[in-house]
# Entry
Amino acid sequence: MIGGFGGGLRPDDRRRMEISYHLAEDCQGQGYMREATAATMPVLWRLIPAEVMEAGAQVENQASFSVMAALGMTPADERLVYSSVRDRHEPTRFFELRRPGS
# Structure
């Protein structure tokens, strides 16, 4: 296992799905996440009835923003998100993509 990827409807806005991913540090920078996410996104669109797909990362995580941009996502907004690992809210920048064909 080198990482994980998932997606689901946001509980506070059922028109939006949020995708999330994490990759082990020694596997970063090799294109694995772009490849896995690009292959999985069409499946999520088929399974989840959302109008918008979004992903977020801490504001200093330029590598994740590059992945999001490569997937066709565009910058959306910034909000505080709770990090259970660090037990605090952190500024998180979100990118989004509208459902293809809508």
In short: The longest strand covers residues 13-23. The longest helix spans residues 32-47.
